[in-house]
Amino acid sequence: MRYLLTERFGFANDCVLILTDEERDPCRQPTKANIRMAMHWLVQGCSSGDSLVFQFSGAGAQVPDCDGDERDGMDEAICPVDSFQQGPILDDEINQAIVRPLVHGVKLHAIVDACHSATVLDLPYRCTFSKQYGCLRWMDERPLNGACKGTSGGKAVLISGSSNGKTQMSVLPEPNATIGALTHSFIKALECEPRTTYGHLLTSMRTTMRAGAGNCSLQGQEPQMSSACKFDINCEPFCM
Questions:
Q1: Predicted confidence pLDDT, tens digits, the chain (240 residues)
Q2: How far is CA 141 from CA 97, 127, 144, 149, in A?
Q3: Which stretches make up the Peptidase C14 caspase domain (predicted)?
Q4: Is 108 exposed, middle or buried (0-12, 13-18, 19+ CB in 10 A)?
Q5: CATH 3.40.50.12660 is the classification of domain 2-163+222-238
Q6: How many CB atoms within 10 Å of residue 207?
Q7: Which residues contact 118 (CB under 8 A, 6 or more apart)?
Q8: CA dihedral defined by 196, 197, 198, 202, rounded to 10 degrees?
Q9: What separation in angstroms does the CA of 49 have from each of 105, 107, 155, 221?
Q10: Do residues 175 and 183 make contact, with C-beta atoms less than 8 angstroms apart?
């Protein structure tokens, strides 16, 4: 992901903050406190023209919704390395941290590679493949209680995996390198076609997931996208 951002999309190396399990520095481990800090760092001082990226690859979870803003009665969450001790980070908090602060002219792309991640940013609209119509269609995910889950004028898009509760791993060509199925298909699609539309990106990712990769099957995984607002996915160019 760092390579993709810096070499393909022109992000500066010193503008990329990475938290990983392998870090010895306790401030660079993906604990609940550090992830919260990183989300605050990401949006702090954002202004028109800024492009932000949030990526999470790890475990996801669902917990009962306590404030009545979920249509299915469940909150989605990401699980930090210390989630057994500190608890997961709920979609309500993620939305408040990195979606609501986005002002006009700021765009955020989130790539969340975890089970139960389809609506983990709590965005109002979700785009998924419709079996009935055989194409990508928008679904209204706005809370029934009227809670506002949009931005402060900016653009927010989440690309995530299907919520089937199963962990799928994909092996990249590099020796001993493993990444999540969604991350693998996302990178592969953009490496093959850097200039693409949102609709074509999802279709390419879906093809990769259905075909499988290496010795691991990715079948059963479905890429999904949610957004703060609906747009023409077949015409809108994808650009981070």
A1: 999 999 999 999 999 999 999 999 999 999 999 999 999 999 999 999 999 999 999 999 998 888 777 777 788 999 999 999 999 999 999 999 999 999 999 999 999 998 888 889 999 999 987 776 677 889 888 888 878 889 999 999 999 986 444 444 444 444 444 678 889 999 999 999 989 999 999 999 988 888 764 444 444 568 889 999 999 999 999 988
A2: 19, 10, 9, 10
A3: 1-227
A4: buried
A5: yes
A6: 13
A7: 76, 126, 128, 160, 161, 162, 163, 224, 226
A8: -60
A9: 5, 8, 11, 34
A10: no
**How many residues can be counted in the chain?**
240
> Which run of H or E residues covers position 199?
helix 198-211
Number of neighbouring beta carbons within 10 Å of residue 74? 16
Tokens of residue 74, six digits: 């469940």
CA-wise closest residue to 92 among 133, 112, 63? 63
Q: What is the pTM of this model?
A: 0.89
Amino acid at 36: R
**24's tokens:** 């010895």
- Domain ranges (residues) in the chain: 2-163+222-238
Pairwise CA distance, residues 118 & 106, whole Å: 22
